[in-house]
């Protein structure tokens, strides 16, 4: 008989663990959900009385407000969370390895392994252990080996893969109405029953036909495949944007025309200054590493090109800024609007803005930055991590963080739109123009603003995917 889940523990209170399990708690008032993390300040923020949560995500505060203290709890007591639960999500970070075998490509599975070992050490009763983190294909097997080698008598561990497909900025709507929930299990009786237990949790709000059950390895690989194919679409449209700039075609019109083909579809065809975020690059590199380990060099090269195209797009955009500003930006002031990797999030991981600003710094320009959500400290951390050899005091001489778009654009030669925040559409561009040095340039890396309107004001506008 499948276990009826009444207590869930989620290890990892990050961008995935927090929102995902908060929504489970909201939709399943009969289940107690405890989200645990080793990071005390993160847990404190989740528990903060004024709901100053550690991540910005539209709609998240409402969910936490309704469920916290009722059947949703945040804690640093990892062991207690594990001990009490019948189902445990492992939702820890799996960044790209920085050193050792596979450095720069393979996923660092240290956090997954530590969490797994903790479960094995602490558990006194049987548990369903669910991989929520994005992991290389067959990670569940390593987890099972660790758990089984360390389990106590009468403790069974059933491992499931249940990758998460939410996107930041729309996490809550994605979780409320997922395209699909994917659950992978072994095809043994116990595996199938564990799968049914988790499927029953989701069935509280997700229609049955959207809950897909597959084999463990297919589930693990499907997550990497989905991200690789989404990123590939962006690299494809960005590659076409370079052709548009050189020929006079317009990338918006091209995307519109090809998106009308129902086999291609209109979504995820927005040319940009390059994709960012914590996962696309990491997961493709992971797929590249997997392909190489399997002696499939052509497959590895195919996926690697998606990341290379993205790097090329960022470089191409900064070069276009320099070229347009009469081949030098030394001593000039550039306003960068947006620092997050996309709108509606405060997350900056792998944000294209970081690369652009680094390029402007190395050209010895002054940079003003404004982002409505990203904390000042985060910006300094990211810029110093991007240029480890430059002391932060030197970076601070070149870079200023501003509190509004208008302030950032004051006395600048050029405005670069790096994130598609809606508020940049509502800026008083006449006012911006008055405050800037002339000629005043706008570089739209997000196809956001109305180039015609800005040109009428007097700006010289350069848009990605359109000729200058
Ligand atoms: P994150 O860094 O925001 O959160 C991970 C959390 O795990 C951190 O707070 C960390 O302190 C905690 N942690 C690490 N080891 C721990 C341990 N042993 N015990 C307790 N806590 C521990 O990461 P994230 O963005 O939430 O991503 C988590 C996983 O989900 C990754 O594998 C990622 O690829 C995947 N994913 C992320 C997204 C996204 O939008 N960010 C979407 C889908 C999937
Ligand atoms: C992405 C996937 O969309 C999620 O399904 C997945 O769960 C998640 O990665 C993950 O595994 O972490 P996310 O990175 O949060 O979600 O955001 P996206 O909306 O996919 O955007 C990623 C990047 O691509 C952003 O920098 C965005 O600006 C850029 N993008 C997106 C474009 O340049 N053009 C587009 O048409 C779409």
Automatic annotation (TrEMBL):
Q: Name one GO biological process term.
A: glycosaminoglycan biosynthetic process
This entry carries the following GO cellular component terms, namely: nucleus
Pfam families under this entry?
Answer: UDPG_MGDP_dh, UDPG_MGDP_dh_C, UDPG_MGDP_dh_N
**Alphabetically ordered keywords of this record:** NAD, Oxidoreductase
The pathway where this protein functions is: Nucleotide-sugar biosynthesis; UDP-alpha-D-glucuronate biosynthesis; UDP-alpha-D-glucuronate from UDP-alpha-D-glucose: step 1/1
Is the keyword Thylakoid in the record? no
UDP-glucose/GDP-mannose dehydrogenase C-terminal domain residues = 335-451
Which reactions fall under this protein's catalytic activity? UDP-alpha-D-glucose + 2 NAD(+) + H2O = UDP-alpha-D-glucuronate + 2 NADH + 3 H(+)
The positions annotated for binding NAD(+) are 12-17, 37, 42, 92-96, 133-134, 168, 279-282, 349
List the InterPro entries.
6-PGluconate_DH-like_C_sf, NAD(P)-bd_dom_sf, UDP-Glc/GDP-Man, UDP-Glc/GDP-Man_DH_C, UDP-Glc/GDP-Man_DH_C_sf, UDP-Glc/GDP-Man_DH_dimer, UDP-Glc/GDP-Man_DH_N, UDPglc_DH_euk
> Which positions bind substrate?
164-168, 223-227, 263, 270-276, 341-342, 446
GO MF terms here are: NAD binding; UDP-glucose 6-dehydrogenase activity
Q: Does the keyword Transferase apply?
A: no
EC assignment: 1.1.1.22
Name the residues annotated as catalytic in the UniProt entry: 279 (nucleophile)
Task: Write down the NCBIfam families for this protein, in alphabetical order.
Answer: NDP-sugDHase
Q: Which family does it belong to?
A: Belongs to the UDP-glucose/GDP-mannose dehydrogenase family.
Protein's recorded name: UDP-glucose 6-dehydrogenase
Lineage, broadest ranks: Eukaryota, Fungi, Dikarya, Basidiomycota, Agaricomycotina
